[in-house]
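The freezer alarm interrupted the setup, so I double-checked each line after restarting. Inputs confirmed:
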Amino acid sequence: MSNVYDQYEMTIGIECHVQLATQTKLFSPADNDSRDAEPNSKTHPIDFGLPGMLPMLNREAIRLAARAGKALNADIAHESRFDRKHYFYPDLPKGYQTTQMYQPIILAGHVDAPLDGGSTVKVRIHHAHLEEDAGKLTHHGEYSLIDLNRAGTPLIEIVSEPDMHSPAEARAYATELYRLMTYAGVTHGDLYHGNMRFDVNLSVAKKDAGELGTRCEVKNLNSFRSVEKAAEYEFMRQVDAIEAGETIVQETRGWSDDTGKTTTQRSKEDAQDYRYMPDPDIPPVVLSDEDINELQIGLPKLPHEYRSELRELGVDTSVVNTVLAQQLYAELVSHVQEREAAAAKRVANWIASKLDVRDEDDVRSVADVNDLLELSAMVDASELSSNAASELFNDLMAGAAEPRRLAEQKNLLQVSDESAIAAIVDAVLADPASSKAIEDIRSGNEKAIGYLVGQVMKQSEGQANPGMAQTLIRERL
Amino acid sequence: MVQITTNAVRDLAQLSALALDDDELAALTDDIEHILTYINKLDELDTSEVPSSYQVGGLQNQYRDDVVQPHTVTTEQLLNLAPERSATTIKVPKVL
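Predicted 3D structure, all chains:
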């Protein structure tokens, strides 16, 4: 009997809130960086919703939104505007959130997200809109405490079409979205501080059903892994419920990383009427094609561009993914590639397999391109063993410079001077202790050469080029 | 005359976080019925040929530079506007 889950297909759409990397808030001149700040210290009367305030739109938020749109392969609206979404909750004292309900700034687009197997999933973007974040509430039994530092922080909400059909696809899309938004400089991408938050909408239906099931929304996921795990869990939960004869109710659910489960938060039956209305305080944003081009000028290279460059180098998919995990690494390999492909391939492989693991947030700088070219040339000239090369590579990536001087200081240069090695080889062969190995080799036991090479390495304190030592030994026997 | 139930006004009061007694509820129901009836006169106009207008000021692209401005009002002053506070947070009755 086939697995019951195999009879069902899941359909996933994702909404993602991206915190923009601006200095100030969307409508107020208060500091937008409230990490670890004292509660309510990064606020302004506009964020407190005091009467008579005049919110003014942050120009940089428009610039970043235009760039986000380009990264999403989307058109930018020639006219967009803001609406008020009313609700009563203490995290937003104005009584409404300023958002773009009817004319968002970013129109339809698409993201091609690479999957582990090498294929891609194409996810269409319905639209993306600008809006302000709400404040933070902490609940303490009989009372709640409000910190409005985050109130007014600019976000774009990217709304995908329901184009994903597996947890792996959902994860791939979330990951690629993260790369696109960080590479484009739209967000700092600090997931720990909630710079990108994903809401996963998932429904299930029998594979031949021809129509979608009722969806549930799992809100506020802040890692790619939880996007994938929550989708896995929701799929099984909904199939189990249907198989048990229950009806899926449209609702909002929360996810717990600790329990690995989703739980009901509120049902859509008590969905509020937000009484959207045009915000009379914020005049519309009108952009010509020329304006839009200007806003998008100098957009850094995006992940798919690096990806095709890396494919030209012929490195493995896993290497591509490791390099792309850090924009600085992708840039570095690309810069080396502009000078020399073979060196770039070597650097990509070093990054993937030799680089000491560092806390991702600590990667602030990388090696100098010229230093890496020199290091690679030293390897080509057999001046470095592969261990010595990895050691120097790590030093360079951690801020050191001048690989040749460094190799000399650390005594890592291989001796490839033939006469110097020949002298050591002759001494080793003349040593009576070597006679057994020499006999073995002459009688056809090739493996015995390892002993002799080892002796040469020992005599040279590890600096002889082992390949050259082996050649010289063979010549003499 | 538009008819509004007392229950609808009670729901509205709850959404607006207002506590109303029965007299106020009855009076407001009456008021809202009159207001809506008056506003509904607008339905008599044929606006099918009139484009929507969202703003009447005629302004567009009103931007501010992305520069943090020093506070003209202190956090302390803002917090003092709240009915209750705890350290530098605003304290409210439980909401969940």
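Quick read of the result. The radius of gyration of chain A is 30 Å.
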